[in-house]
Amino acid sequence: MGFFFYTLCFILFAQSLLALAAALRFARYALRAPAARHRYQPKAVVIVPCKGLDPGFEENIGALFAQDYRDYEIIFVTESEADPAYAVLNKLIKQSRRSAWLVVAGEAENCGQKIHNLRAALETLDAVNRRAEVLAFADSDARPTAQWLAELVAPLADESVGATSGFRWYLPADEKRAGFWSLLLSVWNASVLTLFGEKSAFAWGGAMAIRRENFERLDIRRQWAGAVSDDYVLTEAIKAAGQHVRFVPACLVATPASMSLREMLEFTTRQLTITRVYAPRIWRLTLLTHVLYNLTVWGSLLFLIATGLNGRPDTALIRLLVGILCLGAISAALRLAVAARLLEEDRQRITRKWWTHVFLGPLVSLVYLYNVSASVLTRRIVWRGVGYEMISSDQTAIWHREPLPDSAGTAQEVSGQRRARAHSPSSS
């Protein structure tokens, strides 16, 4: 039995060294990436699908209106005028001098509601014949900095870059009542960061940009039809064209979160279930990594306890296990340091709970093991009140929907006190 755990520990120690090397490579890239100021800034349109009111919703949307970018418009999309986000967005658009559109997409059929909203926004963009050269996409639960759009767009000057991407860093929505499960979510999410870099494993839909010409040439809007995941589909189209996705460190965005244990497990399992359908190689890597980690760490710990009770503690195995845990803690600390450097306004909030990232790695690995195990059993997810069955990467069935009143699709432009009626995008 001892030989078995020694073998596992040596394998996991080697894997932990590779993970540390990846964390160092990510940190070096993230901290050396040049700023985008005064560079490539073509006309851009930011598309923001919204459903419900996320923590800090008004502040998040306000940050999109306040981008330090020469020429851009925003298209917000909701499923229905009955959505709580609709009235808030309408108010914020009227208060802003930025040209913005508010689109009601109607209910999705046989695709994700977010995908349906994005396609409705694109149809509106085509109908009004705007001069946009770049399409950027943002999520309503993230809070970008003023330079976010400029940084996200700048690398697209290089035509070998198919798309650019940021990522999220979860922070407790309420610092005075920082729930443990929200903190654990932050650690869970941060572990993905080392998949990003000069050539990232995937784009993240909450902060991504692509040249409009490239988007249309790759026919991504058609490829989105029938899908649930916007970012994985876009990523595969980019890679199939021989291009790559570039991570933009300055586009790491703070995302307020407040979750219970049930909500955290539901969210994390949904992410892995989507990954299993749309990025099976990443899913298999996650499965192998966390099966090995949990079998080694928790199995070795139980073995050491059993041998210790018999008065024969295996000091060499203890050293190996401590070394593995230390390597994981160093990798986590590197990611934390990078986030604190990139998100200067939130540096204190990030570093205040530093111990969660350094010490909770073994617990997070258990969460990942639960996620991948649960995702084996089903292709069904519930996302913002809508239940989807992902039959394949381009075929989706809706099996549940929280009721919303019917609404006609409309689009409005508001700039200062100006308002113009546009076509109905609901047929997309």
Written overview of the protein:
The protein is of the alpha/beta class and 428 residues long. It is built from 15 helices and twelve strands. A nine-stranded mixed β-sheet has the order 7-5-6-4-1-2-3-11-12, with helices on both faces. Strands 8-9-10 form a three-stranded antiparallel β-sheet, covered by helices on one side. It is globular. The N and C termini lie far apart (61 Å). The model is unreliable at 414-428 (pLDDT under 50).
The CATH topology label of the domain at 27-258 and 403-421 is Spore Coat Polysaccharide Biosynthesis Protein SpsA, Chain A
- What is the helix content? 40-55%
Derived from helix and strand composition plus strand pairing, the structural class reads alpha/beta
The strands making up the biggest β-sheet line up spatially as: 7-5-6-4-1-2-3-11-12
How many runs of DSSP E, i.e. beta strands? 12
Specify the CATH architecture of the domain at 27-258 and 403-421: Alpha-Beta Complex
The major sheet is characterized as: 9 strands, mixed
CATH-wise, what's the superfamily of the domain at 27-258 and 403-421? Answer: Spore Coat Polysaccharide Biosynthesis Protein SpsA, Chain A
What is the number of helices? Answer: 15
Shape: globular
Helix and strand sequence: HEHEHEHEHEHEHHHEHHHHHHEEEEE
Question: What is the arithmetic mean of pLDDT?
Answer: 89
Radius of gyration: 23 Å
Assigned CATH class of the domain at 27-258 and 403-421: Alpha Beta
End-to-end Cα distance: 61 Å
The fraction of residues assigned to DSSP E strands is: 15-25%
Give start-end ranges of low-pLDDT stretches: 414-428
